């Protein structure tokens, strides 16, 4: 049944992407791409999940002022994590993700326009990606980064060490970090769902309080990384 559900989910993704593609393509050619494309991405994520019985429940440690911009850091165990974040945020945000997402027909348009692809094996690619990220933050765009750098191969998932890049970036740009703990999503769909399938259910997400960085220096990057890791890990493990 999980295999059948996964095929239904993939069909839902394909159907709504094709349905919304003309709008996505149209707004990808416009100057104000973030607001329109992210609005459509939010609708797309909701529709493609809800019709197969996948929903998202958010718990906030405190009220977030979404008029400000942040770096969002979350654990990563499912392709659904992108939908989790797209339902959480509004217009002014961009994902930073692996370059392979340019080959995915659903994510390619976003990563050729508003999102930031990065080849972590190439120092030059990583440098260009983080320079673009700096420009986004200076322009008030929220960045979404999965600091593990990939979906780890462990099943059940284990939180892997975080890369330093997001934390150095947050300190350099004096931007707060919002840790996000995505709890049980791997039970709904782990990774891309090809191995174990998927099922209906409610994904529980804890949105932690923003962590200020304006008082920190680059020398504090490792300490900040470890602090965010601890917050996310405790949030994932706590019921």
Task: Describe, in plain words, how this protein is organized in 3D.
The protein has 239 residues and is of the alpha/beta class. Helices cover 43% and strands 15% of the residues. The protein contains eight helices and seven strands. It has helices at residues 2-28, 33-50, 81-88, 108-111, 123-138, 165-173, 185-188, 221-237, and strands spanning 54-60, 71-74, 93-98, 116-118, 142-145, 177-182, 201-207. It has a seven-stranded mixed β-sheet, sandwiched between helices. Strand 3 (93-98), helix 4 (108-111) and strand 4 (116-118) form a beta-alpha-beta unit. The chain is globular and about 50 Å long. The two termini are 27 Å apart. The model has no long low-confidence stretch (mean pLDDT 94).
Summarize the structure in short.
This protein is of the alpha/beta class and 239 residues long. The chain has helices spanning 2-28, 33-50, 81-88, 108-111, 123-138, 165-173, 185-188, 221-237, and strands at residues 54-60, 71-74, 93-98, 116-118, 142-145, 177-182, 201-207. Helices cover 43% and strands 15% of the residues.
